[in-house]
Amino acid sequence: MDLKQEYLLLEGLDAGITLKVNAAFQESLPLIFSHWPYEIVSETSREMFAKIELKANGRFAFTSPFIDSDNSYRDPLNAICALVAELAWQRLREDPSLLCIHGAAAEFSGRLVVFPATRKAGKSTLSVAMAAAGIRMFTDDFLPVSVLDDGIIRGISSGVSPRLRLPLPAQIGENAQAYLARRQLLTNKQYTYVKPLKTENAHFGEAQPLGGFVFLERADGATAEISEISTAKALKTLIYQNFSRAGNAGDILAMLEFVALNLPCYLLKYDQAEPAIALLQAQFAAWDADLPRYAPRAKLQNEAKNGEILFSRYTEVKTGQFEQATGVKVVSTDGQRFLTGRNGQSIHYLNQGAALIWQILSEPASLDEAVEILLAAFPEQARADVQKDVLRCFKDFGKNGLLRKIESAPEAAAHAAQQPAP
């Protein structure tokens, strides 16, 4: 098998993908990148961030310096699925200022409604059903988000065709079934990609303001209904579904807090797609409020030029006094707390117990002192259980750079050194 090495270059990306594949693989690409312009060239000076090669054993090998292990796929469509996922990461690597939310996004009345991914909630099915209903889709899987100088937060189209898992659920509705029958499909045993017409999907790079969030909950036999949800629940889900770890966690948490507080957040319970879509169209027929404008957070005193926060790690927390590390971004809403972690590269959710310990550490406290404070507040708790919980929490805080150890004052240390030995 003598295959020519070529290079896949996609609009908007500096790095490309090395290809050594057959004609069947290349013929699949227009159906996948239906709204993302690309070219295949025989020579280029650009860097490559991944390679897909058809091996002699008939498997497509997918390799990249950014993934831990080499992967291979019998079916070319599975290799393309892996490539699409890695493309999302590459966009973030090339532009760390982007936030990226795992979810679908559709345009309603000039703004985007985002549907964060939730397992088995029917996100992809609903996306195709919305396209069939004439609603323009921006993505069915990942949505890059940016803030320009005007402070408006915008979602950016992926340009990738929607993908459905097989078998198709009956809940997708007759309208979507007819829509699929009129579109080009690329299918294997697991997935089918649907190639939209030019006007049915937004093109790569097209941006629209974020208007709101709808969290999905699908249940057999459920009547479609939409209701508001708490800021805390919205924020927690958005944090879990964000995968912009190339950026600074303080910036990410600040932006997610802003959108959760300032954009409407709803829960959509449903079974059948068509009644759910009718409900969405009525809900977002018009927007009542002006778009909120986001002001990026001020940089912190201990933040390096590259956006990293200079935290110390502590693995030994049983001795000495500790307090909250400075420069930690804290978001507190509806009794829920979220913190940024070491070097600004992580976000942590505090349960009720951890939040209490974090509050204790607003002033210097040792491990034993924190235990005594909690036992005084909750005398019904067993000492051994409290000690175990506090130690685990101190260790987690220390590992993630959330603690600052109180060092002895220099004059006290000098005085101690001058005292004669007993």
Give the topology.
Elements lengths: L5 E5 L5 E5 L2 H10 L5 E4 L6 E7 L5 E4 L7 E3 L2 H19 L4 E10 L2 E6 L6 H10 L4 E3 L2 E6 L5 E4 L6 E3 L8 H8 L2 E4 L3 E5 L11 E12 L6 E4 L2 H11 L7 H14 L2 E6 L2 H11 L37 E4 L5 E4 L2 E5 L6 E4 L1 H9 L4 E2 H11 L5 H17 L3 E4 L3 H9 L4
Parallel strand pairs: 2-4, 8-15, 15-17
Antiparallel strand pairs: 1-2, 1-3, 4-5, 5-6, 7-8, 7-9, 7-10, 10-11, 11-15, 12-14, 13-14, 16-17, 18-22, 18-23, 19-20, 20-21
Helix pairs in contact: 3-4, 5-6, 9-10
Structure description:
- The structure is a single chain.
- The protein is of the alpha+beta class.
- The chain has three domains: 6-92, no CATH class; 96-283, Rossmann fold, CATH 3.40.50; 299-422, Outer Surface Protein A, domain 3 (Alpha-Beta Complex), CATH 3.90.930.50.
- It has eleven helices and 23 strands.
- The chain has helices at 23-32, 76-94, 123-132, 174-181, 231-241, 249-262, 273-283, 352-360, 367-377, 383-399, 410-418, and strands at residues 6-10, 16-20, 38-41, 48-54, 60-63, 71-73, 99-108, 111-116, 137-139, 142-147, 153-156, 163-165, 184-187, 191-195, 207-218, 225-228, 265-270, 321-324, 330-333, 336-340, 347-350, 365-366, 403-406.
- Strand 7 and strand 8 (111-116) form a beta hairpin.
Question: What features would you highlight for this structure?
Answer:
single chain, alpha+beta, Rossmann fold, Outer Surface Protein A, domain 3, 3 domains, 6-stranded mixed sheet, 5-stranded mixed beta barrel, 23 strands, 31% helix
